[in-house]
Specification:
Oligomer: homodimer
Largest interface: A-B, 33 and 33 residues
Mean pLDDT of chain A: 95
Radius of gyration of chain A: 23 Å
Strand order of the largest sheet of chain A: 1-3-2
Function (chains A, B): Broad specificity carboxypetidase that releases amino acids sequentially from the C-terminus, including neutral, aromatic, polar and basic residues.
Organism (chains A, B): Leuconostoc mesenteroides subsp. mesenteroides (strain ATCC 8293 / DSM 20343 / BCRC 11652 / CCM 1803 / JCM 6124 / NCDO 523 / NBRC 100496 / NCIMB 8023 / NCTC 12954 / NRRL B-1118 / 37Y)
Order of helices and strands of chain A: HHHHHHHHHEEEHHHHHHHHHHH
Helix content of chain A: 55-70%
Family (chains A, B): Belongs to the peptidase M32 family.
Distance between the termini of chain A: 70 Å
EC number (chains A, B): 3.4.17.19
Number of helices of chain A: 20
Number of strands of chain A: 3
Shape of chain A: globular
Enzyme class (chains A, B): hydrolase
């Protein structure tokens, strides 16, 4: 007889394989010798095949079917794991195997041709592969569709349970209008803060010393993590006791690594503080991107751009880099720290304009899947929106539509999570400030009340509770973008 | 019908699993966060179980039996792989499963109690576990025994094909006498070189800069390797394009890391230069310890202690650490570099006395397995031999019998490989000097003729050819310890 024990055994194997794949992925992006890529590709393909077998093979299928027919052995976690394992199974299990394999191959080619297109600075090199990916997805959507209203809703729902075009349209409209109004106000103010000192030389050692100390004050633990260098920073968690962060360095732009480390440490904090009861079943309870990002952005923006934090932290930074900023007082520092400016590149955007980059991608993805826009028209569409929302002329594909790898990896419906992360973070913060005095907490030097609130209301649940429920339970209401708008308005209110 | 293809598929899976285990092992000893050990133990246990299944499971058994019955599909590599896979299979396949599992459990406990015994500085804490390991091995030896003459021969043969007590007794007698004679000569010379400057501060950055440049001049490639910090230095090769070395640092003893890095880079050189035709079957063709060690020791001793090398390298080192050694001329440097002194700890021994540490362990192991000496008598035996061979009083178990982890890991018959490594290295060097002028090569700055010789005569074969055959093919004669004695005599000839 099949019991919860069989399900958990199978999911534990999946969890261990996921952990191995995470170690390999981290290593490949931090220190793997350059020539070893071809051997690593074989190893990763083997792991992917094993993971596929475990999560969609006949043994898993039988376990799911048996337990769906007789769930008497399941406790509440068992029910959840069954439901999540079924969802994963259906994601690939509903697709004919040869289509799935062909799709994977297309993704791998597309990423290669995305890189070549970037080298050639020419979208057309990559366009045929993007077309094939989209065409596969349009073929798969009906196989995935349950009660979602539009094709794009199916994709949104995969990354963020319950998210719909209807909801997002309303949320993003409100955000777009709010940003536009605020940017208008700011542009009327013609004094530009002097931020030349932000490019003064701060050594990697100094940057690391300050940023890692700050990350640890916010609760990131080095006995459960580490910091490595990489090209595109990320956090990789093998498990809750091994959540590694990475960064890149620019000795003439210390802001990048400081905010980057706070950001990745926010992801790490989440992983380090998931309840241990989910250890074995972690692989079917991945943390949704939106809420994960809400925690990295909480660190980076809600804390890392706030005046009360820097009022306390700036002297610590000054001391570590002394005498580099001895002539810059706090007001000068903070004005420069907050400086906002529209950019062409999403990953370089400031907290105010960032959501506009996401909204542009969202609108294009919606046009692709719901309005069947022609794929050859995407660059023009992209450039038009950058002009309209950010006031920027896109000079070429490289700084335009070719900047993100996501679509080449088949990730459509994923971008909105980044914006949701910002909105969730602000809503959490608004609730926290009802009971926590951030200014007093930072001044006390003991940041643990903030840590404890986040652990209790967000982190402990890992991926076991859907993000919209975590948000509602923690804040008492569903997603409300007004909190974010209030936050950025507050941030830039006294901006000179 | 079972063909070579099936065998190679199965061995390739084993190779990939071995590679994953190597990555995990490297990570655990270099950068894994401290708290992550319990998760890593689960992951490693999973990998060990998979490896065990692949290499000793029923599928492998059938492949071996089918191909032994009909080998018509095998080419010459196929024959070799079949033979090696069979040997691996029999190592565990001949042991009843419950005994094998109990033995593994004992090993894991023994390592724990070895560590506790070290903390307590008391052999007795560990003795019962050592007894159980030895008793298991005595039970397994008859199951492994083919035509080996004595029980200990069975163990020796597992690490070094064809090695016997008879051969080793003769070799080690010659070595022991040779060292004793030379040490006598040296002790008559009462001037002790001044080596205080070896403890002058050399920063980690300087040490790394010099040692890695030297390792690369000897051919170690960083696009197929990397250097990390660790506690007990090692080389870990995932594959020939990913052979990672590690070191530890002491800013007041730069000799340790310089020689250590040369040593580990020697292991790395071997792995980086194995012929690509063995890539997929690497897991059943591991490189024997003795010949592996011959290459690390070639770097460390044959090169790294030689006058002709340092005559060229010392100015490079001086330049990197300037002005630290500006007042030390080459003769002063080299006299100190070669200083010999008996030590209690094997891993701190100089090249002259090192083999005596091994000979002591060899004689004790032989006494255990061939003469059934009482395990409670081992410390007394140990201490007696250190007094007799090295003239040292062993003050306690920690600096005596508890210094090595090997026996707690079940490795008996392994220590002689370390000594063989020294002897092989010297014999290779003696042959090389017939056609290569080391002095001229080092002076030219292009060390590649040495690299090419080692690649052609040693490295390319990986573990496909037995070490004694590699040695004989390369040097024209079987193991002859006189080359090593000649080398150390030459080294210390003009020693003041």
């Amino acid at each position: 007889m099949t019991t919860q024990h069989d399900l958990f055994d199978s999911v534990k194997e999946q969890t261990i394989l996921t952990q191995i794949a995470a170690l390999s992925g981290w290593d490949a992006l931090t220190g793997m010798p350059k020539d070893a890529g071809h051997f690593r590709a074989e190893m990763d393909a083997y792991l992917a095949e094993k993971l596929f077998q475990v999560s969609t093979g006949s043994a898993r299928k039988k376990i799911l079917e048996d337990l769906e027919a007789d769930d008497s052995s399941l406790d509440s976690l068992g029910h959840l794991v069954l439901q999540k394992a079924r969802k994963d199974f259906d994601m690939t299990g509903n697709i004919p195997e040869q289509d799935f394999i062909a799709f994977q191959k297309t993704l791998s080619e597309a990423q290669d041709f995305w890189a070549r297109a970037r080298e050639a600075n020419d979208y057309k090199v990559y366009q045929p592969y993007l077309e094939r990916i989209i065409s596969y997805l349009k073929q798969f959507i009906p196989l995935w569709q349950k009660n979602e209203k539009t094709p794009y809703d199916v994709l949104l729902n995969q990354y963020e349970p319950g998210l719909t075009v209807e909801k997002l349209d309303a949320v993003f409209d409100q955000v777009k209008n709010g940003i536009t109004t605020l940017r208008h106000k700011l542009s009327a103010n013609d004094s530009i803060p002097n931020d030349e000192f932000l490019s003064r030389k701060v050594t990697k050692v100094q940057q690391s010393k300050y940023a890692m100390a700050a990350a640890q004050r916010l609760g990131y633990k080095l006995n459960k993590g580490r910091l490595d260098d990489t090209i595109h920073p990320f956090m990789e968690a093998l498990n809750r006791d091994d959540a590694r962060i990475t960064t890149r360095w620019d000795e003439n732009n210390f802001q990048m690594a400081v905010l980057g480390i706070l950001h990745e440490a926010g992801h790490g904090l989440f992983e380090q503080n998931v309840d241990s009861k989910y250890d074995d079943v972690r692989s079917v309870l991945p943390i949704s991107m939106s809420i994960h990002e809400s925690q990295s952005l909480f660190n980076e923006v809600m804390v890392g751009r706030s005046k009360e934090f820097w009022a306390v932290e700036y002297p610590k930074l000054q001391a570590i880099v002394a005498p580099t900023f001895d002539d810059i007082n706090f007001d000068q520092f903070y004005q420069a720290w907050l400086k906002t400016e529209a950019t062409l590149i999403r990953t370089e955007a400031d907290p105010l304009t960032y959501p506009l980059h996401i909204i542009i991608r969202y609108e294009i993805e919606k046009a692709i899947f719901n309005d069947n826009v022609d794929i050859s028209d995407l660059p023009a569409l992209w450039n038009k929106k950058y002009k309209e929302y950010l006031g920027l002329e896109v000079p070429d594909d490289l700084t335009g539509i070719l900047q993100d790898i996501h679509w080449a990896g088949g990730s459509f419906g994923y971008f909105p999570s980044y914006a949701l992360g910002h909105l969730y973070a602000a809503q959490f913060r608004a609730t926290m400030t009802k009971t926590l005095d951030f200014k007093a907490i930072f001044e006390s030097g003991d940041y643990s009340p903030i840590f404890e609130w986040r652990k209790e209301h967000v982190w402990q649940y890992g991926g076991a509770v859907d993000p919209n429920k975590v948000l509602e339970d923690a804040t008492g209401e569903p997603l409300n973008p007004q909190y974010w708008l209030d936050f950025v308005n507050g941030l830039y209110e006294n901006f000179k």
